[in-house]
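Internal ticket #5521
Category: modeling
Description: The requester needs a full-assembly model to guide mutagenesis choices. All entity lines are attached below as received. Residue total reported by intake: 719.
Assigned to: D.W.
Attached entities:
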Amino acid sequence: MDTPNAIEIRGLIKNYPGFTLGPLDLTVPRGAIYGLIGPNGAGKTTAIDLIYGMGRNDAGTIRVLGLDHNTDEVALKSRAAYVSPDLNFSVWGKVGKVVRFVRGFYPDWDDAYCSALMKAFHLSAGDKIATLSFGAKTKLSLLLALSHRPEVLILDEPTTGLDAVSKQEVFGELLKAVENGERTVLISSHGLTDIERFADHFGMIKNGKLLLEGRMDEIMDRFRLAEFFSNNGTEFHNRAGLTILKRSENRWLAMLDQKSDAPDWLQTRGAQQISLMPVTLEELFVALAKEEEAK
Amino acid sequence: MKRIILDHLKRRALMWIGTGILFFFIQYLTKRSESTFAFVCINFAVITCIGGPVLDLDLLRGSGRVQQTLPVSARQIGRAWWVLSVALPTLFLALISGLAMVIHSSNTNKGFPLGGLTATALTYALCFGSLFYLIGGTPPLQNAILIVRRVLAIGFVIGIIFIKQPFDTPQGIVFLLAMATMSVLGWYRAEGKVRERGGFRMGVVTGTRKPCQHQAPVGFGGLPLLWRNLGLQLGGAGLVIAAVFLIGELWIPNLRLSSLNPLLEMHMPVLVTCCYRFVIPIIPQMRHLRTMPISTARLAATLVLMPVAPALSVGLAWAAVSSKGIQYPAELVMCAACTSFGVPTILWRGLKWETSLLFVFFMIASALVPTFYHLLKMPFLATTLGSLCLIALSYKLTRRHLQSSSRVYRIPPAMFNAWGGGGR
């Protein structure tokens, strides 16, 4: 079934003692590289686990490539792949054995591509998994995921613990894998610079709630870091579209949503010398997280 | 060192108290009745509750690595582990045995059996000492000498439990000497053990990197490969240990504890132990298995049947050569069915102390299967039906746990992943 979106999550809720994920609506368009960002414990891995059938959702629906994550579990997993440093292959002993094990599940496994990836990642069939470095284990996880050329690639914190060179190798192979635009990637991370460089869409999640979602360029255009001055002791406070980040006497620094009525409101309140600067993903994330906390 | 010991005792206090109470009753009852196979099994289960295996459980969850970051030397940590796994459990069980003996002797107006207490304490010290020596990763399959050494060591540890009078027979003395050697070696290996277990990379690994073979491996894979590898490991280990015991049985005339088939008596706990070697490692690899295109139902069935199939094979093989009929395979399958219940147990709570207690319970239940079978004179049909019901229940619960939440296999034990931490 062809759908415009690779992943569609609607009204997803998962309750744990002391934590609730959702209600979560998330849309990953086909061919997109979607970065799911959020602090530790935000619910990123929970959401990904639910997509992969690891846990039962209390409410809502998850569809991947038009397939229901529960009823079409096997078909979904055949067309998708999952990468995480949490995956453990040590019971297989050697790289070759785990490759052989995983290969058995995918009829369209590409041996030539697998060999090329092994070479690129400096992995040998005889390597003992227990002796692999953390980065090499992540590369092995990526190799296993890419070798059957999945339509959807889900990466959960793939760069955790990787050094700069390994990170470059991993991203290099990832970019090669998605360059034809047919493959969708959902990548969760709290490394914002990686997402900013790599993703074209992103969603921001905190305390189980999606704060923001959309195209990277559109969102980065929409938000601005506003510096302004107040006269006569005018007080500014957080409101829709405006998050005060810093204040020193009459100088204010705030995150401004240009699509909201906050810019007009600032001027009517007497803000002066308003200068707008582009934001980084990190600044935007911190501002939105602050706003969420203030609620 | 003191802090490491106290920390362990604080965290495992309930386990120690529970074990103490259970052990007291066992000791009190065994003084009143003839030592039977059931009590031997329970005794064995008890020593695995507070000795090295409990420490091993902590190490599996990454405590070794954390301790190595503390300002304590590896030698001190090793000695602390030895005290926790050998000295304290021996003292603890000796005290409880003594208490049970005092109460029993005051009730029966018999003198206090000081010799018996000393022998008990010494036997337990040696059991704990050798168990401590044995704690560690499974030797690599390629290293035949290490595997044989490990199998023999396990044989000696389990074998001692089956000898009624270890101090009176030459064979018993040989067992004791072997265990004493392992205990001494354990003390000296403690520091090395810390370095082995505290490392990020699991087990003893030698970096013998061969010339790069970037060629992707070929051959069948998927679940058949999983079945072949694990089936061979479980069935093979069961057969090897059974063979060791068979030889031991011929060599030691007083190995038989009751009127039951001695082969059954020995095989059950051995098989159960082998099967648990399969159940425990489920957790670290579960996340990977869940990402494979296998339906939850198929995965649950695979996991539950994994201990049952080798048991059935071993049983059928034995039935074919011994002309004892299908009774033995039926008993083995029932025993394996009890073991298969370990799968939903571990998927329910993960590597927690509740799980280990339940494991011990299932181990006892599995080991007692032949006793009940003979005592109740269970018909073949009842055994088969009972096994099928247990397997079905295990399957249903496993499937439910696999679907309900990933929290158990979400946080890998720190030995596998140093980044593992909190979770929900």
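Resolution: model delivered.
Comment from assignee: Chain A is about 35% helix and 30% strand.
Ticket closed.
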